[in-house]
């Protein structure tokens, strides 16, 4: 079973997330928390595979909790729950090592996909979040040149896929756009991460955006 911690200060949301995740059959919510500090304590006790963290929580917010988890439980992958209006927090979460960004009003199957992707070592962004984050980034000339130099190591097909990632497309959407299979796109994503020295697809997207892809 994939073991998940859910942290949110709204009990109804926690209950709804638990119901959605456990309906998948292979996911178990092993702990819940109503604030960031409690989330860190629960994670240290239960050592979940994935921590689902709301950005805005009392005592310790989700991003500070994320930093604590990175320091003390690097094996636990974090997915951030967010809503529009928290743009600076999204960049902080990216820099803090979040493996996913999911909107609170997302479809149930999207939440399940995000948790599974994080557990598998991939990253997941709700398409709306990807576009929001990318729209915030206006690269300076020096950063644009540095990004272009890094992307110059890519093959034409790899560069094309990096550009589609920058558009906020999922692997399935890229597969349909390029007429390739989803496993093939996943293989390309692994190559992109290695060649570009990126931790996740969010960094690939930002780099491609900086380069003007």
TrEMBL record:
<keyword id="KW-0804">Transcription</keyword>
<dbReference type="InterPro" id="IPR039420">
    <property type="entry name" value="WalR-like"/>
</dbReference>
<dbReference type="Pfam" id="PF00072">
    <property type="entry name" value="Response_reg"/>
</dbReference>
<dbReference type="InterPro" id="IPR001789">
    <property type="entry name" value="Sig_transdc_resp-reg_receiver"/>
</dbReference>
<dbReference type="GO" id="GO:0003677">
    <property type="term" value="F:DNA binding"/>
</dbReference>
<keyword id="KW-0238">DNA-binding</keyword>
<keyword id="KW-0805">Transcription regulation</keyword>
<dbReference type="InterPro" id="IPR058245">
    <property type="entry name" value="NreC/VraR/RcsB-like_REC"/>
</dbReference>
<protein>
    <submittedName>
        <fullName>DNA-binding response regulator</fullName>
    </submittedName>
</protein>
<feature type="modified residue" description="4-aspartylphosphate">
    <location>
        <position position="54"/>
    </location>
</feature>
<feature type="domain" description="HTH luxR-type">
    <location>
        <begin position="147"/>
        <end position="212"/>
    </location>
</feature>
<dbReference type="GO" id="GO:0000160">
    <property type="term" value="P:phosphorelay signal transduction system"/>
</dbReference>
<dbReference type="InterPro" id="IPR000792">
    <property type="entry name" value="Tscrpt_reg_LuxR_C"/>
</dbReference>
<keyword id="KW-0597">Phosphoprotein</keyword>
<dbReference type="InterPro" id="IPR011006">
    <property type="entry name" value="CheY-like_superfamily"/>
</dbReference>
<dbReference type="GO" id="GO:0006355">
    <property type="term" value="P:regulation of DNA-templated transcription"/>
</dbReference>
<feature type="domain" description="Response regulatory">
    <location>
        <begin position="3"/>
        <end position="119"/>
    </location>
</feature>
<dbReference type="InterPro" id="IPR016032">
    <property type="entry name" value="Sig_transdc_resp-reg_C-effctor"/>
</dbReference>
<dbReference type="Pfam" id="PF00196">
    <property type="entry name" value="GerE"/>
</dbReference>
């Amino acid at each position: 079973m994939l073991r998940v911690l859910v942290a949110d200060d709204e009990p109804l949301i926690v209950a709804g997330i638990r119901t959605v995740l456990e309906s998948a059959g292979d996911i178990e919510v092993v702990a819940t928390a109503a604030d960031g500090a409690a989330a860190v304590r629960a994670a240290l006790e239960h050592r979940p595979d994935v921590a689902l963290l709301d950005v805005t929580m009392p005592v310790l917010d989700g991003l500070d909790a994320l930093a604590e988890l990175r320091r003390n439980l690097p094996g636990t992958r974090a997915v951030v729950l967010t809503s529009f209006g928290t743009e600076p927090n999204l960049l902080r979460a990216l820099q803090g090592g979040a493996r996913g960004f999911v909107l609170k009003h997302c479809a149930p199957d999207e939440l399940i996909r995000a948790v599974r992707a994080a557990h598998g070592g991939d990253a997941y962004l709700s398409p709306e979040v990807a576009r929001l984050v990318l729209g915030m980034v206006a690269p300076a000339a020096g950063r644009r040149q540095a990004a272009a130099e890094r992307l110059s190591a890519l093959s034409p097909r790899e560069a094309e896929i990096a550009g589609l990632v920058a558009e906020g497309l999922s692997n399935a959407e890229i597969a349909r756009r390029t007429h390739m299979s989803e496993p093939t796109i996943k293989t390309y994503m692994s190559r992109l991460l290695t060649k570009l020295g990126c931790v996740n697809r969010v960094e690939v997207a930002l780099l491609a955006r900086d380069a003007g892809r």
